[in-house]
Specification:
The protein is α+β, with helices and mostly antiparallel strands. It has helices at residues 5-11, 58-74, 147-161; strands spanning 23-28, 32-38, 83-95, 104-115, 118-127, 130-143.
Amino acid sequence: MTLTIQEIMDFLPHRYPFLLIDRVLEFEPQKSVVAIKNVTMNEPFFQGHFPGAPIMPGVLVIEAMAQAGAVLLLSELEDRHSKLAVFTGIDGAKFRRSITPGDQLRIEVNVVSFRPRAGKMEGKAYIDGKLACEATLTCMIVPRRPESKLAADSKAGAVSSSGSGSSEGAAPSEATA
């Protein structure tokens, strides 16, 4: 099974400039995924990392692996549109070669373990068949809209409908990632 960028966006909430996988080439449910990221000079991070010597930041390579893994893990959930896969850990990260404009990053992620609320994956990124980066990633599956936010919205609605106009006790709105 392959996925186009439009299908990937059905799984992930990420959008430009933070959606870091362009296509899923191989997909084996509950086991593995292979995705690609076409690295172009148009990437916004190349303006500052580094002028005159552009290198894709290693943390973004790890993020691309995590996004590929998230597609794999979220595919197992019927209610995936209401869930997020969020990072909880990165272990054993090693960066073996620079990734520069014009490279095509091949991302291979294998599931080590997965439960309905958490997962562990091994990721590797290759350029021209040579290992560029590897890491073990852990994540949690959480609601896209936190329960506490829903409760706060309900309370705020109850306060404003009561006519008091007071926002005392209402939770501040949370930024989403």
